[in-house]
Amino acid sequence: MPLLPNASIKTKYDFTRSRFEWKRQFEVSPTTNIVEEGAMLTRLAGPAGNEVVQQSTTGIVAAGETLAGAALISRITADTFTDVKEYTVPVAPGPYTIQLPHANLLTQPGLPTTAEAYVWDVTAAVQIAVVAHIPVPAPGAGNVDIDPVTGLMTFDVNEAGHDLLVTYRWNLTAVERDLILRQSHVNRGAEDQFGLMTVGYGDCLIYSSMYEATYPYAVGDSLYLLGNGCVSTNDPGGHYNFGRVVSPPEPGDPYLGFEYNSALL
Fold first, then answer.
1. DSSP 3-state assignment of 19?
2. Nearest Cα to 198, choosing from 78, 34, 82?
3. Helix spans in 212-254 (H)
4. Does one domain contain both 75 and 192?
5. Would you place residue 49 in the very low, low, confident or very high pLDDT band (cuts 50, 70, 90)?
6. N or C terminus: which one in the chain shows less Cβ crowding within 10 Å?
């Protein structure tokens, strides 16, 4: 299902295509901090014995914990965003570099830093591996060096002239949060004040930017719950399989569409 004409790509999830069977209110666990709308939440017994929700920190669900659904915060709140771009690697004599329009990219765990991005070589129909950021030497054939601080991508001469699809996630600046996403005033929402969260619960469909940008997505792929409210098609072991992809992100439509049914879990 394509992006609708009246939809905006400046929200954390596309509410014009998202559908929630119920919007159920939960108490928020006193040990969690839900900072982005659209984040996937789990539910469990709280300290007083009542059911509460929290944002998973590892993606490995503990005993007694299960999926609640997407956080439907009453105000726009965001720290990160995701995008998909089309590029062509410059031809000889180079330099074989492309500047992403955003800096301060999210990074994968570990050092040296590796940008959270997925690069698909459309011309060769293969993935170009994102390597740890070491500007010298050159990344080598089949690899790309992405500077997470500046967003500069450096390719090998073997990829010269190739068409690309690049998916990446970056940390929003204060200006981007306020002027691009139009993050709401801090006093508008009541979640922090009352410790309550409205959750997209039951048989749901959501088009969300809260997905890991390091792996590919295709219709029918199983989804796994990760930390920080994100989802991924990658399961490094023991992560929570909760839904399936119905629409992969693409240029002009950076949202991942997926289904889940938290009422059955």
1. strand
2. 34
3. none
4. yes
5. confident
6. N
Give the dihedral sign, CA 158/162/167/170.
Answer: positive
77 pLDDT above the threshold of 80: no
Q: What pLDDT is recorded for position 75?
A: 61
Ramachandran angles phi, psi of 179, nearest 5°: -100, -30
Rg for the chain (alpha carbons), in Å? Answer: 19
Q: With contact defined as beta carbons under 8 Å apart, do 82 and 11 qualify? A: no
- Determine how many CB atoms are found less than 10 A away from the CB of residue 240: 22
CB atoms under 10 Å from CB of 227, counted, come to 14
Q: Give the per-residue pLDDT at 52.
A: 93
Q: Give the amino acid at 207.
A: Y
Is the model's pLDDT at 23 over the cut of 60? yes
Task: Note down the domain range covering 135.
Answer: 82-171
Domain count, the chain: 2
Query: Is 89 in the same domain as 217?
Result: no
Tell me the pairing of strands 143-146 and 256-261: unpaired
For the cut 90, the answer to whether the pLDDT of residue 185 exceeds it is no
Helices marked H in 81-216 — which ranges?
Answer: 174-175, 191-194
Amino acid identity of residue 189, one-letter, is G
C-beta of residue 185 within 8 angstroms of C-beta of residue 5: no
75, 203: one domain: yes
